[in-house]
Amino acid sequence: xxxxxxxxxxxxxxxxxxxxxxxxxxxxxxxxxxxxxxxxxxxxxxxxxxxxxxxxxxxxxxxxxxxxxxxxxxxxxxxxxxxxxxxxxxxxxxxxxxxxxxxxxxxxxxxxxxxxxxxxxxxxxxxxxxxxxxxxxxxxxxxxxxxxxxxxxxxxxxxxxxxxxxxxxxxxxxxxxxxxxxxxxxxxxxxxxxxxxxxxxxxxxxxxxxxxxxxxxxxxxxxxxxxxxxxxxxxxxx
Length: 238
Ligand code: ADP
Ligand code: MG
What we know:
By secondary structure, this protein is α/β, with parallel strands linked by helices. It has eight helices and ten strands.
């Protein structure tokens, strides 16, 4: 079980506070989306959950453990980035297998996990290719596959679709929603795209300047925005 609690979570860089004591309860298996303008602290929040950024204040709780001091590699979490960060010299298979190889998983387990993920993502025919021979959408699938092979309870996705063209973005939105149902994991997804948030999320967290403005379902956010900022942000064209 991997519900996540942010309790007065704070991040400062030098003298500047970029995440201001935020409180948030994320349910196990929820698809939660953090939205807000560029620079409002979305990625920093996600990176603290991933353990890629130290917590300055407050507590971060995963399941029933305070993980402030737990190293990233010991958290049951996988992260997918906007730029995919695939290893260019490795095949798709190797890109997906590499994390498990580092953890010294048995060869047959690695093989099964990679093939299962590739099947779900419809990239089995690409396993022997190198990233440079793939389209943007295919690279995105590989990045998802690389996260999936570890079967984490929590997926963190930071603007995973922002490098794709509009048409592919629409397709991938639906794919990621399907994937969330299939994987039965908690998804925490960052975007600055309100349409993405409104169509994919169980609940949306609207952030501004390191503060949370509102946490609600898309419907409630649309019907009853808490303030002018939320109303403007949700209503604004893409
Ligand atoms: P978002 O993902 O919402 O666009 P970020 O979390 O990346 O925002 O950044 C929030 C703020 O923190 C920005 O003002 C950014 O410049 C600042 N910031 C992020 N990382 C660092 C860092 N390593 N050092 C200093 N400032 C940073
Ligand atoms: Mg960001």
